[in-house]
Amino acid sequence: MSEITKVALDAMGGDHAPGEIVKGAVEAVQKRKDIEVFLVGQEELIQKELSQYAYDENQIKIINATEVIETAEPPVMAIRKKKDSSMVVAMKMVKNGEADAFVSAGNSGAVLVGGQLIVGRIKGIDRPPLAPLIPTAKGVSLLIDCGANVDARSSHLVQFAKMGSIYMEHVMGIKNPRVAIVNIGAEEEKGNALVKETFPLLKACKDINFIGSIEAREIPHGMADVIVCEAFVGNVILKLYEGVGAVLIQKIKKGMLSTLRSKIGALLVKPALKETLKSFDASEYGGAPLLGLNGLVVKTHGSSKAGEVSNSIIQCVTFKEQKINDKIRECIKED
Amino acid sequence: MSEITKVALDAMGGDHAPGEIVKGAVEAVQKRKDIEVFLVGQEELIQKELSQYAYDENQIKIINATEVIETAEPPVMAIRKKKDSSMVVAMKMVKNGEADAFVSAGNSGAVLVGGQLIVGRIKGIDRPPLAPLIPTAKGVSLLIDCGANVDARSSHLVQFAKMGSIYMEHVMGIKNPRVAIVNIGAEEEKGNALVKETFPLLKACKDINFIGSIEAREIPHGMADVIVCEAFVGNVILKLYEGVGAVLIQKIKKGMLSTLRSKIGALLVKPALKETLKSFDASEYGGAPLLGLNGLVVKTHGSSKAGEVSNSIIQCVTFKEQKINDKIRECIKED
User: Per-residue confidence at B101, pLDDT binned at 50, 70, 90?
Assistant: First the structure.
């Protein structure tokens, strides 16, 4: 029998906490026998939600934590002061080896700060990147880094490329993933100072399949599996993806309702279109891992509902089974 | 009677040159009596295209230039060596006051280099930004800078904000345009080093209506009229806009053809949808001005057809009428 993956889940984080978070935990354990979830947060509230569902009681435990880190709180202060918050308590469980992974839909900044301060970095990793999967015409690509630590150095970007490759190969099952750096042209001499400095380092790196520069236009077409960039640029890409998608879909819906003829057509295309748009919805692909930590930390969207929470929990199993952190340690040690 | 706007048009630049470029010139003069176009390039080729159309011969003249700067040529070398290219000859006409504006669908880099080396910068302007209009849910916004000069300083960004404001107010007719800086969060303390340094300067700038940071997600929603950013980020935004739009539309079309029911629906929604998508197509809004030069330089898409060429030519009239460069000179001088 396979090992059990233990996930400490922040029951109090996110727009739909604790209701949808608890529901997501239940859905995950209903799907998989090899998962144990610790619902961390205010016991009474969690218990009340949990009592609505039927599930194997060996698979879900409540861990009481009285405080809550709010979405708008300054992250460093929140992590330092709120020792009995769901986030701090859950991340300590990962630190102490009581859990393999931490999943949260809460305050992004606090997840990033807590990941570094509490869970801690793998020796040799300078900066743990946040690496969401983004939908493309061909499937998904890993966008690394989208975190809060901006103005990275070239050595950081090389580590992002290596960790991203390991993740895409062993968690997502993409053999020899294509790694590209975000640039403003295809030629090697193009780019800003950071890209020009990083390009030859990636080219010389034996651990990755570096295919060169990628222009932003090519990202949605799925022209690379691992998209390396500095966090400011990654953040812009991630958020613009959402924004353009949302506005375009809104415009299309409005366009379809503009004439009687198109209204009838809209009714007929609706079911097929819904499926299509689902495949281009980032929330279908679970949470974003914060890589390079002594344990797995996963940040899911603040607006996550049960489905995304459940996907994010299940994602942790492959991460553990494939011993991703051992692979990262080995790859970084070699330098 | 209003003054004549004289436009030097690069007849040899772009994927569809000279055919669509010449056609665009004809369309522009058919629409407006107050425009004179100089078709600059290989005379015989241009004459052959032009002979197909009926137009007022006082409004179109051919200026012979024997050389052509190709799309892939290194820009600086091309501008320096090809003295008799359509680009160099046309830009010299602007420099010498024989034309008010230069419009090209050719080699972007060469347009930027030639703009600075031949047409020349307005005194006090450190870096002329390329500023395309991008479609939003509410209309269009000006994205400034998307050019080739990356790693800008904060003082450059302040100039971008001022020039962008003047353009949106007086060319696009948006009163007191909202200016925002691209950032990874709404709070003033967020951002990379450049944004943190620029934010208070923009806040203190009396010439503009600064509304603070804009996250990339909000750009397509039209939350600001002038979107200020460093060129690397601007380039990523512009190209990702195109990429996400293209892939999403491709997916939607495929989705509509997936079942018999949706195929019938697709036929019915097609005309309404086409109109909608047109409003979200960047090429509908003419070319991107390169601001801060002693004359107007406009870069249109390499794939421009007659319609976009014609729009870009007509755009030059308002630029001249509104004396945009005098307004820029005045605004920069005050510092």
Answer: very high
